[in-house]
Amino acid sequence: MSRHDNNRYRDRSPVTLWAPDAGHPDAIGLRSIGFWLYMMSDAMIFAALFAAHGVYTHAYGTSDITASQVIDPVEGLLPTLFLFTSVLMYGLASVALKNDDRAGVVRWMGASLGLGVLFLLVEVWEFAGLVGEGAVPQASAFLSDFWTIVWVHGGHVFVGLIWMAAMLIQISREGFTETVVGRFINLRIFWFFQAVIWVCVYTYVYLMGAS
């Protein structure tokens, strides 16, 4: 894309960035294609982890700790509520972006960030309790897989929160440039994907594991 095209897109409002002109492709769509490919590879990683969980669910080894003793679906409800509400807040930030409302985007993204932090804090508290009970990864293949699958997801959430904090700074300083909006949309894809993965974690690991 030429410097002239970059300047032309920089002066556009967020709504216009989604409407291609004659002879010019959708600027936001082009920026999202590569990120979708990355998300496909991420989905394959989680698919492998879920497959491993299916194999190791009853692999307790020499440990007396079973899945039903470690996993409590009720405890999993609170982080679920925090993460889903965080996704809702990010959706409202997207609506504010469409309306060219910078203050609204910052407000809703800040709420989304705060709820995401609460999600991680609850997860840390839950696993600190497991350590106190001796349910550590090296105790059995099941516990090793359980820790891995939940904390790989938690690592993704942590990265998303760092990204969100950086986006808040960029939006506050630069406004809705093509680059900033493109990053905002990619982060939305990433953040919503974490909610989808958590549905799988809660259903497959917490609900089925507790039974």
TrEMBL record:
State the UniProt keywords alphabetically. Answer: Cell membrane, Membrane, Transmembrane, Transmembrane helix
**Heme keyword on record:** no
Subcellular location per UniProt equals: Cell membrane
Domain (Heme-copper oxidase subunit III family profile): residue spans on this chain: 33-210
Give the transmembrane ranges. 35-56, 76-97, 109-128, 148-169, 189-207
Q: Key word RNA-binding present in the record?
A: no
Report the sequence similarity comment from the record. Answer: Belongs to the cytochrome c oxidase subunit 3 family.
Q: What is this protein called?
A: Cytochrome c oxidase subunit III
Q: What is the lineage of its organism?
A: Bacteria, Pseudomonadati, Pseudomonadota, Gammaproteobacteria, Salinisphaerales
